[in-house]
Structure formats: C-alpha cells, structure tokens
Amino acid sequence: METAARTAPAAVIVGIDGPSGTGKSSTSKAVAAKLGLRYLDTGAQYRAITWWMLHNGIDVNDPAAVADAAGKPEIVSGTDPAAPTIAVDGTDVSGPIRTQEVTSAVSAVSAVPEVRTRLTELQRAIAAEAPAGIVVEGRDIGTTVLPDADLKIFLTASAEARAARRNGELKGKEAADLAATQAALVKRDAADSGRKTSPLAKAGDAVEVDTTELTLDQVVECVVTLVEEKRSA
Ligand SMILES: Nc1ncnc2c1ncn2[C@@H]1O[C@H](COP(=O)(O)OP(=O)(O)OP(=O)(O)O)[C@@H](O)[C@H]1O
Ligand SMILES: Nc1ccn([C@H]2C[C@H](O)[C@@H](COP(=O)(O)O)O2)c(=O)n1
C-alpha cells in the first residue's frame, strides 16, 4: 500500500526590528508561541555583553578596550518563547541586564564593530539551528543579521506612546517622570540609528507596522497573518 509522503513545513525565519518600546519583544514572543517557533531577543545579548564589560571593569566608552574584550564572555540564549533565558559565562543575567546602568551603556558597547561581528555570528548560528523556524528581534535583523529572512517587520510607535508604555511597566514601583522616560528613549534611538556599523534601520523589503493606536493583540494578529500568508504563498 502506498503511503502519502508528508513533508514538514519549511522553517520560517521572521525578523522584527524597530526603535525602543515599539513592542518588539512582546510581539515576537507571542507570535513565536502561537506559531510554534523559537524566539531570540538580540537586545538581551547586547545587554549581556555590556553587563560583562561593566562587571569586569572595562571602560565602555573606550571602543578599543571594548573591542579587545569582545571575544571573552560566553553568551548563551535560551529560545523558548514561554521562558527565554540569557546567561553569561554560566550566570543567569536576565535581571541585571535590565538595570539603568546597563541601559545607559548598551548603545556605546553595541556600536563597537567587534561586538557586532561576534553577536551577529552567534545570532545567525541560533537561527540556523531552529527546527521549525524562529522570530528574531532587534535593530539590524532585516538589514544585516538575516537579510534573507522570509518576513521582515519594522515596528514603530510615537515617542509619547512608547514612553507611556514604559512607565506603565513601573506600576507599583517608583513612578517615573514621563518626559524623562521619553527623552531617554529618544536619546537611545538616536545613538542606535546614528552608529556607523549596522545601525537601527528599516530594511527596504520590511513591512512597517505603526503600533501607536493598536493593542498588542492586534499587532500580534497582524504579524501572525503576514507569516501565514508567506507560508501559503
Ligand atoms: N501595541 C501595544 N499597545 C500597548 N502596549 C504595548 C504594545 N506593545 C507593547 N506594549 C507594552 O509596551 C512595553 C514595551 O514593549 P516591548 O518591551 O515589547 O518593546 P520593545 O520594542 O521590545 O522594547 P525594547 O527595544 O526597549 O526592548 C511593554 O510593557 C509592553 O507590554
Ligand atoms: N540587533 C540589535 C539589538 C539591540 N541592539 C542594541 C541597541 C539597543 O539600545 C540595545 C538594547 O536593546 P533592547 O533590549 O532595548 O531591545 O541593544 C543592537 O544594537 N542591535
């Protein structure tokens, strides 16, 4: 008796880029979970290497010192969208990488070409190993890391909306000044967009989604639909 040959759907690679606070992490995790894909937060990797530099007394404003040390830490990312992890030399740094000290230093460290080369190689290797595919989020995924991704999304939102979202995360903690939050977001975006090596930028073939007036569920639905359209094309 003949058995019908069953082929698993080809792995799908989705890149999601955009400025800070546009919803990349929330959207990417939810899309990956819905579609059974892996999830990679490349911002967490840049934060992890920044944490290591600070922890080891490297002057983060000295590009030569950062470049010399760029190959030293071992960065390991767990890609389960329900429980992503990030470790440096075996230490879980998921908490420490979110401190203000790291946030203030990460743009300087991520502008160093040796850091970018190191992490880009790691990101490509992780994407290549994802059996059903992966959602990778960052700043240069569509332009540099995975230029052949099946689908590229560029999320945007007004600076006001992004600052309000960030402050919303602080509920129950010390209330942050909205104007100060907005100024910090805009400053980091300017640094990330202005660096020479693979700056924050929309790839020419990316789909831009302005999330200012959309709920997270609406953004997730929009991206899931775009992935399904690509898969059935
Ligand atoms: N469409 C949306 N509407 C309202 N809130 C949202 C929306 N998308 C994300 N958020 C909220 O905004 C905050 C920032 O989202 P998220 O961390 O996903 O952004 P991001 O682009 O990954 O930021 P960063 O680049 O700084 O890591 C979170 O509190 C998240 O719950
Ligand atoms: N592909 C990437 C991802 C992140 N960065 C840098 C620039 C960001 O300000 C920083 C932290 O990212 P976040 O956690 O806010 O997503 O990391 C980058 O240069 N390239």
UniProtKB/TrEMBL annotation:
GO biological process, one term: nucleobase-containing small molecule interconversion
Coarse class of the protein's main subcellular location: cytoplasm
Entry keyword Glycoprotein: no
Location of the protein in the cell: Cytoplasm
GO MF term (any one): dCMP kinase activity
Keyword Glycosyltransferase in record: no
Positions that bind ATP: G18, P19, S20, G21, T22, G23, K24, S25, S26
Alphabetical list of Gene3D superfamilies matching this protein: P-loop containing nucleotide triphosphate hydrolases
CDD domains with a match to the protein in the record: CMPK
Keywords: ATP-binding, Cytoplasm, Kinase, Nucleotide-binding, Transferase
InterPro entries: Cytidylate_kin, Cytidylate_kinase_dom, P-loop_NTPase
Enzyme class, first EC level, given as a word: transferase
Catalytic activity, EC: 2.7.4.25
GO cellular component: cytosol
Catalytic activity: dCMP + ATP = dCDP + ADP; CMP + ATP = CDP + ADP
Domain of life, per lineage: Bacteria
Residues annotated as domain Cytidylate kinase: 14-228
Membrane-spanning residues: none
Family from the record: Belongs to the cytidylate kinase family. Type 1 subfamily.
Name of this protein: Cytidylate kinase
Name of the gene: cmk
